[in-house]
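Suppose you are handed a protein chain with no further information: no name, no annotation, nothing but its sequence. What can you learn? This example shows the usual starting point.
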Amino acid sequence: MNKYVKLLITAALCVTTLAAVGCGGSQKTGAVDNSKPVKVGVNPGPHAIIMDNVKKLAEKQGLKIEVVEFSDFVTPNTALAQGEIWANCYQHEPFLKATLKKEPKFDLVKAFNTALFPINIYSKKIKPGQPIPDGAKIGIPNDPTNGGRSLLLLANHGLIKVKDSKNISTTIQDITENPHHYKIIELEAAAIPRSLDDLDCAAINTTYAMNAGLDPAKDPIVKETADSLYVNIVAVRKDTLKDPRLEQFKKIYQSKENAKFIKDKFPGSVYIGWKE
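A reasonable first move is to predict its three-dimensional structure. Written in structure tokens, the prediction is:
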């Protein structure tokens, strides 16, 4: 056998070996490398607390998770689209859809439901059970989905009327009746808890409410119910849907053990978002 033939055979063997190893570093085709953790983006507060529990449950099954915290609602999707994290767990599907309209290059999809983190109306001036007075200044988030969600919350409790009480894209312009002459003030979601002193009341996401020391089970003067359309999700890049670790991650998140943890840790504050 001449040197040229030997080189060809050697090259062919190298290519075969590389193909078998693949990106995961395993010698079994289609296998993944569980020695490296998958990075999951969350917001601080209940999202992070629940994910820390999922992380502990996952470790028992050989899946390693690194929890990465983001303090805003924008960066986690950017980080996911750029491949800096494997998945994120902080948003509901309407928010993801609104993001994809603004950023069509983000190849992101819903993977599965997680939990419902209600948006409620809080106040330092009005006690639970008391009506919101006429002319009250009501703060709502200035992002389209949570702003619309807040307006639907007010509408569903008969405080205002909107064109379509099931339209998640509802805006201030869609208010058809405001009999109490409320002044709706749009603010950045994260800043609303700090603005409560200047408002009569405000719609605050559960994450920000809890971070501000508010109790979503006891403190709201108006509550969002468990049948809300705004169940939170895990989002991933579209190609990650083929990753076998995603199904394992889903089963762990939606396990009886994690459901019990959520109910025990956040009674009346966070609702299970999947069928048990």
